[in-house]
Specification:
There is one protein chain. This protein is α+β, with helices and mostly antiparallel strands and about 190 residues long. It has one domain. Strands 1-2-3-4-5 form a 5-stranded antiparallel sheet. Strand 4 and strand 5 form a beta hairpin. The longest helix has about 50 residues.
Length: about 190
């Protein structure tokens, strides 16, 4: 009986040591990779911002603002784009939880008159080949120059002026929802209610 008890204690001790060493190694690797992963994410975001706003010579990250919806329940990041010290456009990181595959995240570029310059989907779980077509130029080009604050900013099936992606109306409506949220948050910010 003594030998069995000794073997059990040895096994528990060995497994505990192995678990502690593995936890230490994982923690160390996480610390090593945390900064490079963060820099890579920032670089991707800056590239996305650059693709949706007009030409700029400032650092949008340094001037980033957090703005909120009118009810203060949703937060958005606003990145002003300046050329020669004058803001010529801005980007807003926005989202919709109404996608066919769940949450869709995007960065939308707006001109100073409130019209859309461009947008880029940064994260989605939409169906490949269908819902992911909201990232295609054919769909995105419909938005350029449109102001989400004006009438008709919905899909044609709902009486608007935007053609939904065939077989992906839910994804198309989610993209519109995310853009509208960003526009409303900016309007709220502009009125000083932030």
């Amino acid at each position: 009986m003594k030998a069995n008890k000794s073997n059990f204690i040895n096994m528990v001790l060995t497994l505990t040591i192995i678990a502690l060493v593995a936890a230490f190694i994982l923690s160390y690797v996480e610390q090593l990779t945390k900064e490079p992963i963060s820099r890579a994410k920032d670089t991707r975001e800056l590239e996305a911002i650059a693709s949706v706003v007009k030409e700029f010579d400032n650092d949008p990250f340094a001037e980033k603002l957090t703005i909120t919806s009118a009810n203060k329940k949703q937060k958005f990041e606003l990145y002003p784009a300046r050329k020669d010290g004058v803001i010529n456009s801005y980007a807003i990181k926005t989202f919709s939880n109404n996608g066919f595959g769940g949450k869709i995240e995007m960065i939308v570029g707006f001109l100073m008159d409130g019209s859309i310059n461009n947008f880029i989907i940064t994260q989605s779980s939409e169906t490949p080949g269908l819902g992911t077509k909201i990232s295609d130029e054919k769909f995105k080009s419909q938005f350029r120059g449109l102001n989400p604050n004006k009438h008709g900013f919905k899909v044609r099936q709902d009486g608007g002026e935007i053609d939904a992606v065939t077989a992906a109306t839910i994804s198309s409506k989610a993209a519109i929802d995310a853009i509208k949220k960003a526009a409303k948050a900016y309007n709220n910010f502009n009125t000083g209610n932030n």
